[in-house]
Input
Amino acid sequence: MKINPRDFYAHPTLIVARQLLGMRLVRILDGARLAGIITETEAYIGEQDLGCHARAGRTKRTEVMYGPPGRAYIYFTYGMHWCLNAVTEAEGFPAAVLIRAIQPVEGVAIIAARRQGRGADGPAKLTQALGIDGGLNGIDLCTPEAGLWIETGESIPEKSVTLGPRVGLNVPEPWKSVPWRFRLRRVHFPAQ
DNA sequence: AGCACGATGCTCT
DNA sequence: GAGCATCGTGCTT
Output
C-alpha cells in the first residue's frame, strides 16, 4: 500500500474526511507495525466553524492547523486524552479531520493488550491503542519518518457511508448540527 | 441498553 | 475560572 501524498490532504476537508474512510492508519511502535482501518472521521473547517479549535484564531495550540496539509494535529483534552487529526486544505487555512475510530487489522494482539481488550472505537481510544500523544504533534504524515502515517486502503462505496452531526460539541447552530461526521457501516476486512 | 458521573489538567477568557 | 472534538464505571430500566 502507498502512503498518502501531501496532495491528498490539500483538498476540501469534507472530501478528505470522506476519503479517509477505509484507509489504513499505520503506527510503528517499539519496532512493531500496528494498523487499523479508519471507520469514523469528523471535519473541522476554518475560523468561522465554531466547533473548530481555530475559532480562537492563531494560537500556540492551533498553529499546526494553519500550517501545510498532511501534518498531524494532536491535542490534549479532558485532562487525560489525546486526539489525532490530519491537517487539510491550503497552508494558511486552518482545517483538519479528526480520526474518531479504527478497526485494528495489524498488530492486533499488541493493540488488544494496550487497550486491555477494550477496542479502539473512539478518538482517545485509538491514540492510546497506537501510542500517539503530544510528542507527535506537527509531524509529517506523508513520510514514514515519524512512524505515523496513513496508507491507501479499501475502496468504500457511498452506500456504506453514514453522515451525521459531530459528537460532543456544545456550540451554536448551525455548527452543532452540520453533518460533518462520516461513519463506515460495519464491514468485514481481511486481516492483511 | 442507557444515563449519570468523576477523573484530571490544559487553553483561552 | 470555565469549559472541554472523552472514557470507563456503576447504577437504573
Summary: The beta strands of chain A are 24-29, 32-45, 72-77, 81-87, 95-106, 148-151, 161-164, 181-184.
